[in-house]
Amino acid sequence: MKIISRIMALVLAGMAAVLPSAAQAVGPTGQVIDTSGIYRDRSDSLAATVFVVRQEGNYLSKGKQIRTEVISSAGLNKMACCSLAESFENSASVTSGYSDAVTGARQIRLLGLSGVYTQMLDEARPVMRGLAAPFGLSYVPGQWLESIQIAKGASSVVSGAEAVTGQINLEHRKPTDEKPLFLNASVMSDTRMDLNIASSLQMGPSWSTVILGHVSGNVKSFDHNHDGFMDAPEQLQFNLSNRWLYFGQNGVQVRFGFRALQDTRHGGQAGYDHEAFSIYAPERPGADPWGSDIVNRSLNGYLKAGIPLSEDNSQNIAIVADYTFQDMDSWFGATSYMGQQHSAYLNILYQNELNENHKFIAGLNGVFDSYDEALDRTVWILGPANTVSDGVENFGNAGIFGEYTFHAGDKFTAIAGVRGDWYSGSGFKFIPRVSLKYSPAEKIVLRAGAGRGLRHAMPLVDNIGVFSTGKSFRGDFSSLTLEDAWTFGGNVTYYFPFGVSSDACLSFDYFRTRFAQQMVADYELGMNSIWFYNLDGARSWTDNFQLDFSMSPAERFTVSLTCRYTDAKIELRGRGLVERPMTSRFKGVLNLQYATRLNKWIFDFTASLNGSCRVYDFMMDAKDADGNLLYGNGRTPVYPLLYAQVTRRFKGVDIYIGGENLTNFRQKYVVLGTRGADGFVNPRLQSFDASAVWGPIMGVRVYAGVRFTLWKNS
């Protein structure tokens, strides 16, 4: 508690030192030009007048050619939204959950597949790759964000080929924001505390910057289900980002910035010490506590430059460069996994808008990754068994791409893109993608798309939960397979001619992803082991159906209902074609929001119904304390979740209170395995498994927080 308080005070003091505001940044027309992508235009006025506008929290973008769901800043404020991982509870498109019951790592699913198949973008720059993937969602504070765009299916080829199921683009708070100071502080009943600070400063007609700070941690961890393991790890995170914008009188834009973070996590059984822990005969009395220690450090720097080649900016050149260093030191019982990653990304683009009907983008880009992994895994198999693997692997890809866009007014739009990429170790790959949008009537929009996606798998990091088991690793878990998949589908949206909001709509979409090559972590091939292997032609696909309904039946009252059904199949060795394990079949989300006049009071309510999934074979014999089978029918139960929040807004200050998982539903027995005489699972046996998580680990959590905004000239 003292440490966190001191750090928060230091961050506040540091931010206060840079708060004196300078003159507004203005361009040649009196406005500051801002862009979410350096080659796309965006204008933000810095007028001092503050207008009260009610913004939709979640909505389907009308103008996007690809089916895109937008979570606005208002949507991010509907819940505590301490991090990006907790920002999707109002969306059925993206499902969020824990990868295991020890590390606190969060994972998402889009179109029924793990989040590693979704390309994460930070304002058009690929992020959360490789070692950053397991915990990356927890390293983006929700209050740093302006919006989130979720694009399903085949997407643009401009940012690379790694988007298999879609793209999630993050828009951060801008240097040109008219908010010299924003503060957000919250505390939860589980002692988790968050502090976020943002300061946007304009320093003359050309320069502006935004400083973003974040500190979070919990004072204490609990074991509410009394299984001997902490429900959530003890955690402390520091996160600092500084973003700059230069806008020249000649239209040249330059953006650059950096981010640094450190995150420490201590989970598992209380008292675990990785330096003192050793594996020995599991029946020995007084065994040392088993647990996990993880330290993540990251540095990122980027540069984006846009140079107009014509007065109207119809022709321009853009350069995007990014470098990331990621360091991960982790211990799980007697196992250690140490990893370092250096990643460099370069994208050079030329855009030419020939006229209002024709536009094309061409360019070349490349990615270079260097991974240094060292695994020393010790488990008990009739005695200590040791698996050692280490080495440095360098690989990357470079390619050329082109994308052509045809507009026929508001009726029809077609985007055809193609990439030719050379992958080290895999040779040349051809990546085509196409998106179509057609509006046969004013209130109807049809979309369709198809394309190929490729990504290098990291078997251990992509499946971080395997470390929270006593199982042995078998097969090729050090091979960085180039996974290959095709996704196609479509969407139809009908906008109602009634209702208060013009965004009232009913939308249906269907997408299928089919793999030509995939790396699999198979829990079911052998007893007490996890096998890693490539599908090599075996079948793997998901079919995803979703229905969205949104309407404002009265002023300041919004109703949103979303239902998603997923049919996921995979052909496993020795099993044939089966339902993909631990993948829920359906999810339904109902969100209600009501605001009083001038938005003084805002009431949010979210209810979700989460479908069942097929459990792993080894879970079929799992029993509760009374000896009853937990999964007698081979499936998890259907369960509801409820969230609620009330916000009171004053001039420049919002105070909010809320609750999560108000049904208090929790997955019982998240830690599986053979129990000792004390009734607890013995983590030294091969039967130990804390990775089979399908539901909430934490029960009811209530929270309170405050947001303070200092506006220009206020």
Question: Keyphrases for this structure?
Answer:
22-stranded antiparallel β-barrel; disordered N terminus; mainly beta; six-stranded mixed sheet; 3% helix; 714 residues; Maltoporin, Chain A
Fraction of residues in helix: under 10%
**Low-confidence regions:** 1-54
Calculate Rg over CA atoms. 25 Å
Q: Looking at the chains present, what oligomeric state does this protein adopt? A: single chain
**Annotation field: number of helices:** 3
Tell me about the largest β-sheet: 22 strands, antiparallel, barrel
Tell me the β content.
Answer: over 45%
CATH class wording: Mainly Beta
- Average pLDDT works out at 87
Broad shape: globular
Total individual domains: 1
Find the CATH superfamily.
Answer: TonB-dependent receptor, beta-barrel domain
CATH architecture: Beta Barrel
The number of distinct β-strands equals 37
Intertermini distance? 34 Å
Output the CATH topology.
Answer: Maltoporin, Chain A
Structural class: mainly beta
Report on this structure:
This protein has 714 residues and is mostly beta strands. The chain has one domain: TonB-dependent receptor, beta-barrel domain (Maltoporin, Chain A, Beta Barrel), CATH 2.40.170. The chain contains three helices and 37 strands. It has helices at residues 2-16, 73-76, 459-462; strands at 32-33, 43-44, 58-60, 68-72, 94-98, 106-110, 113-114, 118-122, 125-127, 145-152, 166-172, 181-188, 192-203, 207-218, 234-247, 253-268, 291-308, 315-332, 335-353, 358-380, 384-408, 412-423, 427-441, 444-456, 472-475, 482-495, 505-517, 519-522, 529-534, 540-554, 557-572, 576-579, 586-595, 601-610, 639-650, 653-660, 701-710. The protein has a 22-stranded antiparallel barrel. Strands 3-4-10-11-8-9 form a six-stranded mixed beta sheet. A three-stranded antiparallel beta sheet has the order 5-6-7, with no helix packed on it. A hairpin with a 4-residue loop joins strand 19 and strand 20. The radius of gyration is 25 Å and the shape is globular.
